[in-house]
What does this fold into?
Amino acid sequence: MKNLSLLLLLLSVLHSISAQDDLLLKDFRPESIYNTSNTVIERAKYPVIDFHAHPNAATKKELEEWVSTMKGHNIEKSIILTYSTGQRFDSIYDMYAQYGDQFELWCGFDYTGYNEPGWTKKAIKELERCFAKGARGVGELGDKGLGLFYSKPSEAPGLHIDDPRLQPLLKRCGELGMPISIHVADPYWMYLPMDQKNDGLMNAYTWKIDRSKEGLLSHQELLTSLSNAVKNNRGTTFIACHLANCSHDLDILGKLLDEHPNLYADISARYAEVAPVPRRTKRFFEKYKDRLVYGTDMGMDDTMYRTTFKILESTDEHFYAWDYFSYHWPLNGLDLNDETLKKIYHENGRKLIKR
It folds into this structure.
């Protein structure tokens, strides 16, 4: 009996060692055991304008449920970045416009034939048609190094936001009072080697940038293209999505904001990148409180909204939100002051969409 007990104990130890050896990094999902506060915030402290949402609801029922969720969480309005032009934009607009001021629809640029003579005039004509339909901004435009590719129906490989062919469109947006939401680059972890030194590896690997591709602009070159476009179009408002993907070094974004009074940034979908360094982020958000706007870009579930409020408003420490963020690191509340919250949640956004 004693020998059997020893055998069972040995097997248990071996099984434990084997389990540890077999644990894959992608399966690592720690749970905090710290005895810290766990704040649940159902409603944002102040009314919210979400500057980065997409047409996630595909049916009338889903849209009705989303509207109900938004109202329950104090979301006054969501900017729907459709990427779209033509019939696709019209269809999305007709669906969402039924809910009045709850949504504002932004269109894309039509890149069809962008290498052909006369394309710019055609693109401006479609922009003006979308504006007449009801589009009040442009976005989300997107360039991760190989060219602008988010707008539908066509992508534009090799065309970057500071290309001279785009200059008349950017200027026309300013004349029409249409802000431009643009995503350049990706978080810097995606550019680093996918090795043991990359502390954002678990998420970075999924979104890694293949730097071997011919013609790929670097992280810095993409930010330069944005800076050029903003500088050359002082009459047009630009909103850099996702903190211009400078989460690793917010000073880079700070310098851009200092240089360009017509540049703003949304904070969407980068909560996981900035919440691990709460004191650094808090200082930045409070310094540039006049130039940042709230955004989500993470769907339409109520838990998603609560997670963003928890990060922005609470003093909670060392927690995880695995349903939305795939990094290994814990998150922390930023405990933003009331003035900063008011501006990021609502006041800055109200100025940008004032008609």
Strands lie at 48-53, 75-81, 103-106, 138-143, 147-148, 156-157, 180-184, 238-240, 263-266, 292-293. The first strand starts at residue 48 and ends at 53. The CA atoms of residues 271 and 308 lie 7 Å apart. The mean pLDDT is 94.
